[in-house]
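Throughout our pipeline, every protein is held as a single compact record rather than as scattered files. The record that follows is passed on verbatim for readers who wish to inspect the format:
___
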Amino acid sequence: MTTTKKQETEKTGLAKGVNKGTKTTPIISKPRPSRRKGAQSKRTNFVRGIVKEVAGLAPYERRVIELLRNGKDKRARKYSKRKLGTFGRAKAKVDELQRVIAESRRAGH
């Protein structure tokens, strides 16, 4: 027996014949709502950007930037890890703050 996918044909609604069976609407497979959880909406992203702009950096973020400017990347990651909980989050935050430093340098020159 071959393992080819059965071709989807519309049922006739009759009890006999090649396409016997009740007519049904095809099942449309769409992603579960749980797969969308955590995805940022445009509005949320916009609001967070505005808040960041108005409030500025948190004290620990300022310290991380200071460590990065002094060339202590590993110490910056370790400090971020203590504040944020996981090393993955810490690495992401350090990368974000390095981008902030680069932007400030570009704006300064």
Observations:
- DSSP finds five helices and no strands in the chain.
- The chain has a mean pLDDT of 89.
- The helical segments are 33-36, 42-55, 59-69, 73-84, 87-108.
- Residues 87-108 form the longest helix (22 residues).
